[in-house]
Amino acid sequence: xxxxxxxxxxxxxxxxxxxxxxxxxxxxxxxxxxxxxxxxxxxxxxxxxxxxxxxxxxxxxxxxxxxxxxxxxxxxxxxxxxxxxxxxxxxxxxxxxxxxxxxxxxxxxxxxxxxxxxxxxxxxxxxxxxxxxxxxxxxxxxxxxxxxxxxxxxxxxxxxxxxxxxxxxxxxxxxxxxxxxxxxxxxxxxxxxxxxxxxxxxxxxxxxxxxxxxxxxxxxxxxxxxxxxxxxxxxxxxxxxxxxxxxxxxxxxxxxxxxxxxxxxxxxxxxxxxxxxxxxxxxxxxxxxxxxxxxxxxxxxxxxxxxxxxxxxxxxxxxxxxxxxxxxxxxxxxxxxxxxxxxxxxxxxxxxxxxxxxxxxxxxxxxxxxxxxxxxxxxxxxxxxxxxxxxxxxxxxxxxxxxxxxxxxxxxxxxxxxxxxxxxxxxxxxxxxxxxxxxxxxxxxxxxxxxxxxxxxxxxxxxxxxxxxxxxxxxxxxxxxxxxxxxxxxxxx
Length: 493
Known about the structure:
The chain is an alpha/beta fold. It is about 30% helix and about 15% strand.
């Protein structure tokens, strides 16, 4: 397969150029879901109910090993939408902005706008709506809380509103018996459906980015989604302790959950009964967002846009639900850096016509893959989120920009058995991670670039990252090799 890859990529590039010149350009519906770990039925979870995303995944390519480049919302989104990797000084925290950290960079949505696309942002796409605002075709749209000071918490019960206004804290969850559009994600879905109606009347392709907030804390969702679950059936994390031999750098007390009302302050553990309530809230919030995604996909089909629209569903990072004692995304652990990525190609890109992608690509192969169905299946190969920008450009037949530091994964969209990357590279503050098919190693660096701590996990035998092998003598050679790859990346990004 590897020997065929250069030929395959050339064939695909030609195919897309033919497509772009002969057929109406494809649209892009980009759906981002905040704090979404691979807790979906399509990813093998039996705990959650996510029928709409699962249905989409059955007609799409599900990337089983997709990694963000920063497990922090602002930085992850800025890196993703610019196609540029984070560094010690660029795209670091949740307040990262493209227009400050990479002022001369093109954004994905701005580039497509300049290529004739109508680009629109609805909900949370970048952390700040003002970031690169001029790159959108219209001002970014965000929902408004009925009480302005509530912000993203947008509590619905009088008791919780009063609690928040009294001390600016409020509870970590809420299940109000209200319609979907009383909380933000229902409002976002309503606006996005109206926008789809509008763009369907335009004589130009669109790039529509829709960002849902849940399951971000607080875990607030309409009661009907809470009622999908019973707390007696909820299992807690099986790895609630820090890994054996974990360095102190891996341990922190980030207050994302701890700041909410009634939550014990660190280092006190979250009691099991409270942990079950929190996981209940997370699952309900996932189901709530899943329902909103279903509304968009239904509207897309009703408007006859689905046959010519690329649909991408992605988290902005994962989230720990008690794993390693953490209730945050801010960590280098796999549960924080791995997130869902699902890409559905429209029939205009996969139909078997003389100019279609399928026939143009397979004509370059000496031995076609048996039972190949382009655009459908599970891709096990590694991808990272700086790869999304170049992938979208290739799908749309656009040239790759010099600033882009990722690689297109179109080969895996056409053939899910195609190889992914040798390694991907998340980072979190002073910690750089290298993730290969089997291993994940984190190194912490000081300001002089010297390694101060390490973690190494064997994901084949220890997928939940419970034993740090970095100082084990049997892994000395592997650690040295992974370290050299990390140093090379740090010197060239």
